[in-house]
Amino acid sequence: MQARPLAQSALLLTALAAPALPAGAAAPGGLAMPDMPLHDPFVVADKASGTYYLYTSNVPSVSGECGTGIMAYQSRDLKTWTTPKVVFRLPENSWANGGAWAPEVHAWRGKYYLFTTLHNEAARIAAPSASGWPAYRRGTVMAVADRPEGPFTVANGGEPVAPAGLMTLDGTLYVDRAGKPSYVYAHEWIQAGDGTIEALPLTQDLKPAGPPKLLFKASSAPWSNGQRPVAPDGTPAKANVYVTDGPQLYPSKDGSLLMLWSSYDRNGYVQSVARSASGELAGPWEQLEPIVRRDSGHGMLFDTFDGKRMLVVHRPFKNARGKLYEVRDAGGRIEVLNQRVDLDGDHAMAPSPPPKRDHCKPAQ
């Protein structure tokens, strides 16, 4: 994908973890990807322990642990996975009461930082809402741990990285060629109308170091499809809105900077790519065609232990499972080589297993 390892951009974690599974041990639990409910998948390939970590929102019926949080599956081979364990829990007395979406884990200065999006629909934001729907508190928080398997505890008092008056989600960490970190996130369409991808400079301690800067709007993609959704109370949006989800940044071998992000075309959710030919986060950004459609998206890239580059996405949007594609850096673009159905099955071609009853809720 690029000339230097992803680890140098804090995107692929390879060197700091303590062993998780004993060397040579089989993964207990024996789960395969079709058995594993997940949304917004994020994989850490930890060479030190020979373990892949797959993070997603906690599903109590799968992890066996109640509450809002993040769980992580583990695997040696991307085919057989452990029963997941909860690695982060929503703190008591938090401003949030739900979410734990889009978890990511990045290595930075000897620690592991988890980013996840929380929200509270009752905590309204006074700023105007372009959609006409009430805006409420939603933002990505950071948590920190010594190991990729946690446990992670919130940093910055549990407050979002972006300003609390902005309704944001899907925050990620990007480190440029000069070693300067930035926080990149989606500004939610509920508040913005035309969703955006924005960047906030950070200090070496991952504290905000300046105001957010606009990178691009969702509508800048020629393929993007505006929608006029209706709220649960029957209130339609004021006008067509455009979605931005899941930014992830990767330097390409030709010197450009690529960004995975997701939105909707006429046929549904897609995994797309934007390109900054300058190689700089400031852009300007050019929108490329989606690389995976089929109601798929919110993907990220990682390198396998045998040197293959993989894209993981979720599909379909509801009752999602992880899908793996082998890809390559084609110089300023990502080329999909094939879907690894030997690892992920083909959930789009087969019925989903029936959901297990959530033991945290009383039977109806």
Strand content: 35-45%
Instruction: Tell me, briefly, the overall form.
Output: globular
The assigned structural class equals mainly beta
Give the ordered list of helices and strands: EEHEEEEEEEEHEEEEEEEEEEH
CATH homologous superfamily (4th level) name of the domain at 91-315 and 322-341: Glycosyl hydrolase domain, family 43
- Which residues form runs of ≥5 with pLDDT under 50? 1-28
- Compute the separation of the termini in Å: 49 Å
Query: Architecture of the domain at 91-315 and 322-341, CATH level 2?
Result: 5 Propeller
**Level of helix content?**
under 10%
Tally of DSSP β-strands: 20
Kindly provide the name of the CATH class of the domain at 91-315 and 322-341. Answer: Mainly Beta
Number of helices: 3
What summary fits the major beta sheet? Answer: 4 strands, antiparallel
- Main-sheet strand order equals 1-2-3-4
Alpha-carbon Rg, integer: 19 Å
Organism: Pseudoduganella umbonata
Keywords: Glycosidase, Hydrolase, Signal
Biased composition (Basic and acidic residues): 355-364
Signal peptide: 1-25
Describe this structure in a few short sentences:
The protein has helices spanning 60-63, 189-192, 341-344; strands at 42-46, 51-57, 69-75, 85-89, 98-108, 111-124, 136-145, 153-154, 168-175, 181-187, 196-201, 213-217, 245-251, 257-265, 268-276, 285-287, 297-303, 309-315, 321-329, 334-339. The protein has 364 residues and is mainly β. Residues 1-25 form the signal peptide.
